[in-house]
Amino acid sequence: MEFRYLGNSGLKISEITYGNWLTHGSQVENEVATACVRAALECGVTSFDTADAYANTKAEQVLGDALKGERRQSLEIFTKVYWPTGPRGHNDTGLSRKHILESIDGSLRRLQTDYVDLYQAHRYDTETPLEETMQAFADVVRSGKALYIGVSEWTAEQLRAGHALARELGFQLISNQPQYSMLWRVIEGEVVPASRELGISQIVWSPIAQGVLTGKYQPGQAPPEGSRATDTNGGADMIKRFMDDDVLSRVQALRPVAESLDLSLAQLAVAWVLHNDNVAAAIVGASRPEQVAENVKAAGVTIPADALAAIDQALGAVMERDPARTADNAPKTRPA
What we know:
This protein is of the alpha/beta class. Helix content is 38%, strand content 13%. It contains 13 helices and ten strands.
């Protein structure tokens, strides 16, 4: 395993980070989820990402149970706040002071820890003054309940504003968690340059594009039974933007590149996002322990320039690069 500094801080995290969105507490049984976490630990993964909204708080509980007995100082545990949780009351959502301070206590209880290493704003809250949000995060840090603060899917402008307030309030905003893959490159135009300037790293989700970059989805064929594209609980909706025959055909054209580097397509996809020096970690999930072991093999891989060029040529016009997509995909109002 390789380790990278998270933003302009002294915190190191494993460049392969295990995440439990769409799996723990919903798609897989708890015993399998625990086996996946144990496999990650055995492979040298020390960083684990979750959120209170995943499976409506159940994912945090599963992760806390799976990590029980591990030396806390040897782990980096990340969670998030923003999306509706619990009974979804009118204050059970967003980034108000009330919701943040109540949510961190719930997350710590479920994760069975006194603190999280990174507490993240899961989206930008358009209905709460940014000053209120950042003051609440400052208080969470000063109370010792979180060591660092991060965000997820914020625009370059939002990152600049949040970073400035964090400095005024005496704490560090050190990370952003965006979607990023060979197919989804929207952060490269504005978010990454701003982040480099501010000392913020990316912890990227969906580096395998919801499984599309594994090559298991074939053009003109029905998705494999039990795959994410057949999951009616949310997985199919997330992956549908990539379930296009042109996209799937171009992904198949990546096989010679992966084979030339002695990698699977999934390993190539994870290694590709880690090639960006502003990326501190790639989040990988799993529904089987062996998937973890395979994905971890992408750690420390160097992709030569000719292979990077071949990837771009193979994918061509199906790569999404428009920086405006970050703002387009953000919630315009606080979710109820």
